[in-house]
Amino acid sequence: MIKTKFNYDYYLRKNTLPHIWCPGCGDGIILKALLRAIHKCGYSKDEVVITSGIGCASRLPGYVDFNTIHTTHGRALTFAIGMKMYKPKLKVITISGDGDALAIGGNHFIHAARRNIDITLIVFNNYTYGMTGGQYSPTQPLDSFATTTPFGSIEPPFDVCNLAQAAGATWVGRSTSYHAVQLEKFIVDALNHTGFSVLDVITNCHISYGRRNKMKSPVDMIKYQKEKAVPARSAENMSPEELIGRFKTGVLFEAKDKPEFCGEYHKKLELLKTK
Amino acid sequence: MKQVLEGSMAIADGVRMAEPHVISAYPITPQTHIVEHLSQMVADGDLKAEFIMVESEHSAASVVLGASACGVRTYTATAAQGLLYMEEVIYNIAGMRLPVVMTLANRAVSAPINIWNDMQDAMAIRDTGAIMLVAENNQEAYDMHIQAFKIAENRDVMLPVIVNVDGFVLTHTFEVVETIDSIDKVREYLPPINMEYKLDVENPYSFGTLGEPSVYMESRYNMYNAMKYSSKTIIDAAKDFKNMFGRFYGGLTDTYKMDDAQTVIVAMGSVLGTIKDVVDELRDSGKKIGVLKIRSFRPFPEEEIVNALKNAKNVIVIEKAICPGKGGILSVEIRDSLFKHKINTVNVNGYTIGLGGRDITPKNIKDLVERAEKEENVDGEFIGLSQQYL
Lengths: 275, 390
Known about the structure:
The complex is a heterodimer.
Chain A: H1 8-11, H2 27-41, E1 48-52, E2 67-70, H3 76-86, E3 91-97, H4 98-104, H5 106-115, E4 120-125, E5 128-129, E6 135-136, H6 160-167, E7 171-176, H7 180-192, E8 197-202, H8 218-228, E9 229-231, H9 232-235, E10 247-254, H10 261-274
Parallel strand pairs in A: 1-2, 1-3, 3-4, 4-8, 7-8, 9-10
Antiparallel strand pairs in A: 5-6, 7-10
Chain B: E1 2-6, H1 7-18, E2 22-25, H2 32-43, E3 50-53, H3 57-69, E4 74-78, H4 80-95, E5 101-106, H5 120-123, E6 131-134, H6 138-152, E7 161-166, E8 174-178, H7 183-189, H8 213-245, E9 253-256, E10 263-267, H9 271-284, E11 289-294, E12 296-298, H10 302-309, E13 314-319, H11 330-340, E14 347-352, H12 362-372, E15 379-382
Parallel strand pairs in B: 2-3, 2-4, 4-5, 5-7, 6-7, 10-11, 10-13, 13-14, 14-15
Antiparallel strand pairs in B: 1-8, 6-12, 9-11
């Protein structure tokens, strides 16, 4: 437990900066919220492990001064599971984009949730493959445009939170890069939760997504986040029609009594030893 | 028609002329532009194909495998990590003898992550049973893709063809490319696909079923033989292309200023451009030097290589790949070819250069020419290392 005055520089690897994110990208806001949240939780740098796959968001571990690993596309959670299983005391955080977590890595996403392993997954959800120039992703809204859906997408997107909850995650929340204060609070909540926690963060890629969808500036996209976000409680009083094109924010699901995978695994080991 | 085209666009346009029925891919730098262009062509109605977007390279390769098994023409493209993720499926495509054509935008492999050009990705799949061709420039890349379908779909071959193009150096570079105006001429060169074995409810077959010890080896032997035979098909495809469209880059190999050459530089891909410039300069100053270009890495053109190199004194193999634990890859295969033909008068030196997108300059090549005459049996030595990072 550390109690020092918060300072971004303390947590950043300044020799790896400047970062590669485009000016106006929301990923930096999430990075800063993550650092504030980690500080608030009081973890020492050595206790924290951050894993990532491939994509813009996945560059984050290179910039932060924890134990970090930048792995192969879609597999960030599997590396995280290996680490968590070996050293359950570590605070393991996985950073993944929507393509990384839900397309190529979708299989690992549902199985990590099913096991309810104590890892926090933060999905940087910008509806697109920003790094490769804006191909359609599994969270891209219906009828919106990408380089590979020039006439609009006909595929219904995943709702990251519904998917996580249905698959067995025990803490599920959503925020945006506009709601920076709320975002920090949710990351703290997710980190303090024991079990698989998934935080879906709607972030902006005005370069690869916005430009093709009438939101070419970061401001347009931040406005989108502000206007389309509906606090979960307000959503309860809204009709399904009113919710079209909008997304719920808040802590959307929490279950505290579900068995956590590492705990269950070690219980089983102990049981076998006594037999 | 002559046009200034980005390499990716030239490749996409070459693929369009071949009229594939199914295209599937997953984004990865530096390949992405190729399938973006194709996606646009399909959306605009310029190419009547199914363009299937998927959630990973493994799925992209699987989609084209499935489609190809149904007897239609298929295409995919990838690079580096994406290729490694496809590898399992490529073995299956080759084993099922399906004529899938794919572009490999050659790129370094992780870790550390690096998106720039070298040929380590290609070398990792050299034993899958896929034919591997290498283009030197965007014009050859355009033409080679059309040839690739003809080679793959030959009834005596029936193997996937991977067209290697250097990532960024070719894919993202604009060059003058002469495109073919008449689709009818391409159709004449490349007749509609007509597979003997395909998934067909009227005449059912099963692909990839259990090959027990009693049959597995024969199945691999047949594939091995088809690959051997494909040498002829590749040469024929290049010659037919020349007759119809006028352009020719050699069959399995090509030679440049090789008459009386005592020193020969061997290489694959875009680096040949730099090498040829250096050779022009050295020839002007009276040096007897030439170039052997490898167009087909699989099948490996053993005879052509031996014939080209047997009278040389020094051979310099320039490679953008390395086999840790051994050394060069192309250089080892060249030495083996000469050894088999009992030629022991040629000094073969292999150098590793340009990994992860590091520039290969004319000076690098000149230095190697000078060194090669003083050295013997260099086996993949790294060129241009920076001492501070060692």
